[in-house]
TrEMBL record, chain A:
Pfam families (UniProt xref): ACT, SDH_beta
Organism: Mesobacillus selenatarsenatis (strain DSM 18680 / JCM 14380 / FERM P-15431 / SF-1)
Signal is among the record's keywords: no
Protein's pathway: Carbohydrate biosynthesis; gluconeogenesis
UniProt cofactor(s): [4Fe-4S] cluster
PANTHER family named in the record: L-SERINE DEHYDRATASE (PTHR30182), L-SERINE DEHYDRATASE, BETA CHAIN-RELATED (PTHR30182:SF12)
SUPFAM superfamilies: ACT-like, Serine metabolism enzymes domain
Swiss-Prot/TrEMBL catalytic activity: L-serine = pyruvate + NH4(+)
Lineage of producing organism: Bacteria, Bacillati, Bacillota, Bacilli, Bacillales
Stated name of the protein: L-serine deaminase
Transmembrane segments: none
Gene3D superfamilies: 3.30.70.260, D-3-phosphoglycerate dehydrogenase, domain 3 (3.30.1330.90)
Sequence similarity: Belongs to the iron-sulfur dependent L-serine dehydratase family.
Keywords: 4Fe-4S, Gluconeogenesis, Iron, Iron-sulfur, Lyase, Metal-binding
UniProtKB/TrEMBL annotation, chain B:
Cofactor requirement: [4Fe-4S] cluster
InterPro entries referenced in this protein's UniProt entry, alphabetically: Fe-S_L-Ser (IPR051318), Ser_deHydtase-like_asu (IPR005130), Ser_deHydtase_asu (IPR004642)
Protein's name according to its UniProt entry: L-serine dehydratase
The protein's Enzyme Commission number: 4.3.1.17
Pathway(s) served: Carbohydrate biosynthesis; gluconeogenesis
Family: Belongs to the iron-sulfur dependent L-serine dehydratase family.
GO molecular function, one term: metal ion binding
Transport found in the keyword field: no
NCBIfam families associated with the record: sda_alpha (TIGR00718)
Length: 221, 301
């Protein structure tokens, strides 16, 4: 089941005109921003399929940039996002791609901070404002999209996987699928965890507070 | 958890509760939040819808000037007393249009289930409200009932114009509204299911062909027709008319039709009304002549 909540259907509250091309775009942009942890100085946004063909009309460009600036879907600054980005010193480039992707609403976002930090994510907007992140820094996320999923960014060392799963176990949250990966031994590592239940803010906070965990990001809510 | 409309109807009948209540119980279970929190969130969505209708009825214009002001024209016409279709139906039309005009003007709306189809559910709700005088809680339940049906469509078919055409957006929204109108009017869960089926059957095959890729033409007026369709189908179901094809099979047909719909008719602005001479002319007036496909524009000022 790709949609789990009544509020996936009646919602989100958002700035128009399109849930998939505006609200969904803002959400993907915001995931990129959350993962990047700071305001980038440059963003290269590649649009595919329907996103590439109709982005101007839907304000997809405005929404993606708004998301990258950490604006929510109902932020009234969205219509002025490009101007605000320019004023904030964010250089934005849009590329429309001809490649046919699996999903018609696909976007790739590359963020740079001018000091060597880079991030690339690929996201899809599947309708009604619901989105899925399919790729982070070329690390393909094999998510069904059918269950809530989180990404845990952490230090690569013993005991951390167990610490994270212990927290989930304490709240009786069952893991349906899990993947681990790392840049290099002892460097940054990631866990992608797909669960049977949505995690609440308390669990989220507890995971984030674990020693050695840098970030916990909701990939599919 | 219900997976289709048949299970939803069965659950409501077996527990002798409204479809809205089944949706609320499922939301509690899935989200782990309290009933109060869930009701409060829907109340907030309801308020967003009220404000959007109010704003649309006071007159808005989109940045392109393609849409805006029609909700006001319709209200004035109703007030003139000359309407042929009846005030409730046209009030729904006006309020659906009001919502989508606000959406096109990049105002705040609540997606139901999408932004392009955001007019039908609130438009019908606020029109039917005038006749049925529901409590605030009943209005919130109306939204949960629409959510229950939309939930089934979203999981078994699609609510995305890019994936399934307008039938998946306004078609789904209209079916959702029809089902909720029936429930608010005191109909049975089965009658809600029939109303959904009758509505969607009459919107099958509807393509998504927005002029210039904008959620304006024909989206705003399709919401008007979605609202009319929903009210008519609700009245048919309440009259005892049933759908020969079961609701879940109609949803399945909608999905299958979406799968075979060419990409040009799925929110790419390449076919249908978008490709008419006037559609193309409007596109050019708004965005200028089409530029190089590879690098559309660069912002580096």
């Amino acid at each position: 089941m790709k949609y789990r909540s009544a509020f996936d259907i009646i919602g989100p509250v958002m700035i128009g005109p399109s849930s998939s091309h505006t609200a969904g775009a803002a959400r993907i942009g915001r995931v990129a921003r959350t993962l990047f942890e700071k305001q980038p100085t440059r963003a290269v946004i590649s649009l595919y399929g329907s996103f590439a063909k109709t982005y101007k009309g839907h304000g997809t460009d405005l929404a993606l940039v708004a998301g990258i600036m950490d604006f929510d879907t109902f932020d009234e600054r969205i219509p002025n996002a490009l101007k605000i980005a320019e004023e904030s010193g964010i250089e934005v480039e849009f590329i429309t791609e001809d490649a046919v992707m699996e999903h018609p609403n696909t976007v790739k976002i590359n963020l740079y901070d001018g000091q060597g930090k880079e991030l690339e994510i690929v996201g899809i907007s599947i309708g009604g404002g619901t989105v899925e992140i399919t790729e982070i820094n070329s690390f393909k996320l094999k998510l069904s999209g059918a269950n809530p999923a989180i990404l845990v960014v952490h230090h690569d060392r013993f005991g951390l996987i167990s610490a994270v799963t212990s927290v989930l176990s304490k709240y009786q949250i069952n893991i349906g699928h899990m993947e681990v990966s790392r840049k290099d031994k002892g460097d940054t590592a990631v866990m992608v965890i797909e669960m049977d239940h949505k995690i609440e803010n308390g669990v989220y906070a507890e995971l984030t507070a674990l020693d050695g965990v840098d970030q916990v990001i909701r990939l599919v809510d | 958890m219900f997976r289709n409309v048949a299970e939803l109807v069965e659950l409501a009948e077996k527990n002798n509760v409204k479809i809205a209540e089944i949706m609320i119980r499922q939301e509690i279970e899935v989200s782990g939040r309290t009933r109060e929190e869930i009701i409060a969130q829907m109340e907030n969505n309801l308020q967003v819808m009220e404000r959007a209708v109010e704003r649309g009825l006071s007159g808005v214009k989109s940045q392109t000037g393609l849409t805006g002001g029609d909700a006001v024209l319709m209200q004035n016409y109703i007030a003139s007393g000359k309407s042929l279709a009846g005030n409730l139906l046209l009030d729904a039309v006006s309020k659906a249009v009001a919502t989508n005009e606000v959406n096109a003007a990049m105002g705040i709306i609540c997606a139901t289930p999408t932004a392009g189809s955001a007019g039908v559910v609130p438009g019908t709700l606020f029109a039917v409200k005038e006749k049925l005088n529901p409590t605030r809680m009943e209005m919130i339940e109306y939204l949960f009932t629409t959510a229950a049906f939309g939930f089934v469509v979203a999981n078994n078919a699609s609510i995305s114009g890019a994936a399934g055409g307008c039938q998946a957006e306004v078609g789904s929204a209209a079916g959702m509204a029809a089902a909720a109108i029936v429930e608010m009017a005191g109909g049975t869960p089965q009658q809600s299911s029939d109303a959904f089926a009758i509505t969607l059957k009459n919107m099958l095959g509807l393509v998504c062909d927005p002029v210039a890729g904008l959620v304006e033409v024909p989206c705003v007026k399709r919401n008007a027709m979605g609202a009319s369709n929903a009210i008519t189908a609700a009245d048919m179901a309440l009259a005892g008319i049933t759908s020969r094809i079961p609701c879940d099979e109609v949803i399945g047909a909608m999905y299958a039709i979406g799968q075979t719909m060419p990409s040009a008719l799925r929110e790419t602005a390449e076919g249908g009304l978008a490709a008419t001479p006037t559609g193309r002319r409007l596109e050019e007036e708004i965005f200028g002549k089409p530029k190089s496909k590879l690098v559309d524009y660069l912002i580096q000022k």
